Amino acid sequence: MCHELLSDQGGEFQNDLLNELSSILGITKIRTSGFRPECNGMCEVWHRCLNAMFAKCVRTDQRDWSDWLPYINFCYNAAEHSSTKFPPFYIFMGRMPIWTIDLALPKVEGGNKTVPEYAAEVEERLHKANESVRNNLNAAWGASSRWYNRKVKPRSFDVGDSVRVYYPRKYAGRTPKWQSFYSTEGTVEKKINDATYLVRSKAWKQGKIVHVDKLRPVKQFA
Questions:
Q1: Least confident of 98-102, 117-121, 158-162
Q2: Which of 4, 77, 165, 221 sits most deeply, having the most CB atoms within 10 A of its CB?
Q3: Closest of 25, 24, 28, 17 to residue 1, by C-alpha
Q4: Do the Cβ atoms of 7 and 21 come closer than 8 Å?
């Protein structure tokens, strides 16, 4: 079981049932702040890849997407992951998946192994793969962190500061090119950590946790 469960603020994830289930299983339930998909980047990248694969297969009316799902999922799990350098199928099963061509080709020698011998071989492969995956993930995380930090400009706010909050709502009949997404004003009520703040606004019923990247200071001109 996982130790932490990260999700966005969708109702299918933020509910009493999932909170109680997480508590029973000893899982720490955490969530992203509003309009901050980068916080759950691994899942968002997977969605982007999944949608790109669907776009190459579905009909024009897109009603046959469920027919393609098993094949797309299989192809993704059988392909090498850019971060782990291993196919997801291999990491979980300790072997490569069986394709149609494998069933057509003759069997290779060395397949007559006892169950203990096969189990020991799979365990050894999984152990080596796990070590390699951890090393590759650490290298990928380090590279991503360095790339992200190149563009980051530190910003902080104090309790009581007036701020403008990013709210990318689009309206029918209005072009977003002329629209201000920082029209909502609020007040910083609490600093949660270096990245998130509790902000209250007259336009909201209750305070919201907002990422620092989605806040701008309200400047007063004399």
A1: 98-102
A2: 165
A3: 25
A4: no
Q: What is the pLDDT of residues 21-78, one digit of tens each?
A: 999 999 999 999 888 888 888 889 999 999 999 999 999 999 999 999 999 999 999 9
Longest CA span, the chain: 86
Locate 171 and state its tokens: 């309206």
* 3-class secondary structure per residue, 64-127: CHHHHHHHHHHHHHHCCCCCCCCCHHHHHHCCCCCCHHHHHCCCCCCCCCCHHHHHHHHHHHHH
Please list, residue by residue across 135-151, b when 16 or more beta carbons sit within 10 angstroms of its beta carbon and e when fewer do.
Answer: ebeeeeeeeeeeeeeee
162-217 has which CATH code?
A: 2.30.30
The domain limits of the chain are 79-152, 162-217
